[in-house]
Design a protein that fits this description.
Elements (H helix, E strand, L loop, with lengths): L17 E2 L5 E2 L5 E7 L20 H10 L2 H10 L13 E6 L1 H4 L15 H7 L4 E7 L14 H10 L5 E5 L2 H8 L6 H12 L4 E4 L12 H14 L6 E4 L19 H18 L10 E2 L1
Parallel strand pairs: 4-5, 4-6, 6-7, 7-8, 8-9
Antiparallel strand pairs: 1-2, 3-5
Length: 293
């Protein structure tokens, strides 16, 4: 594997991009998702509990139903009702998410999650995000670029220069670990520092990485080395949190390629990332630590 390292380099065509049938990798710059959404109106009927449709029943009907139910039935229903946890909410109203193919797969364009309510934008809205910038590209890394692609650093830099201010989610590193293993002269810590420099102290949540491969550039050993470097970087950045996705991902969620996720895994990943953001930067109080589980 050979490529030109650096922010203007080109990754080797073997860098995994968007998932294809049979677990084959396609490193195409065409697997790109760019979204700028105002999510304030996304909570529509059928998407979230407590939607406007659920609240639309006339008060008179509700009162009549309550009066008609025998007290014994009402008591039984109250006892049988499941206990639900309060909805997680984040202080991050504005979020910029930059990712690779494992983020493409969480969007409508990725096609792996057919229910819009389970896709990443809706999950972010569910925890209180109201304005979302999302740029995901198959095969993306922080430093290298494939033809027609913008690397993670330059996506973030462009948004900052255009005036974006808010929280950041970096779902990057899978391909960076592989590129470093293959001989890039841009090391792991240098890549992390490059991305963190763009945030200028704004809140950052970094999603760590995991694969099921025993060998090769994308081996789990290389991904673990990346994750360990992320943990080392925490000492330099009090504004940084790590979501320990590697500790959450289940073997049954992976595709045969050992890198990407099946529809069940994609749906779980979308929800887990949004919920982790609410734990990393909660609406009230503080996170329990810099590593979010």
């Amino acid at each position: 594997m050979r490529f030109r390292p650096g922010s203007s380099g080109h990754a080797h065509p073997g860098v995994p991009g968007s998932r294809r049938a049979g677990g084959r990798w396609a490193a195409t710059a065409g697997a790109v998702v760019m979204v700028a959404l105002s999510l304030a109106g996304i909570a529509v009927a059928g998407v979230f509990a407590g939607s406007p449709a659920a609240r639309a029943a006339p008060a008179a009907q509700a009162t009549h139903a309550a009066q008609a139910a025998p007290a014994a039935q009402a008591t039984h229903a109250a006892q049988a009702a499941p206990v639900t946890r309060p909805r997680l909410r984040t202080s991050c109203r504005h979020v910029a998410h930059i990712g690779d193919s494992t983020s493409v797969d969480l969007t409508a364009a990725g096609g792996d999650i057919t229910d819009p309510a389970q896709q990443l934008p809706a999950r972010y809205a569910d925890v209180g995000v109201r304005h979302l910038l999302l740029d995901a590209s198959g095969g993306r890394s922080i430093a290298e670029e494939m033809p027609g692609q913008v690397n993670g650093y330059n996506v973030a830099l462009n948004w900052w220069n255009q005036g974006y201010r808010g929280c950041w989610v970096f779902a990057l590193g899978t391909n960076d670990a592989a590129n470093v293993s293959a001989g890039s002269n841009v090391g792991m810590m240098a890549r992390i520092q490059q991305m963190m420099s763009v945030a200028h102290g704004e809140p950052v949540m970094w999603v760590n990485t995991v694969t099921e491969l025993n060998s090769g550039p994308w081996s789990e050993a290389n991904e673990q080395a990346w994750d360990n470097t992320l943990v080392q970087a925490l000492a330099m950045y009090p504004n940084m949190r790590i979501f320990d996705w590697a500790g959450v991902a289940q073997p049954g969620w992976f595709l045969p390629d050992g890198i990407h996720y099946n529809p069940v895994g994609c749906a779980a990943r979308a929800r887990a990332i949004a919920d982790a953001l609410a734990r990393a930067f909660p609406r009230h109080g503080h996170s329990d630590g810099q590593i979010v589980h």
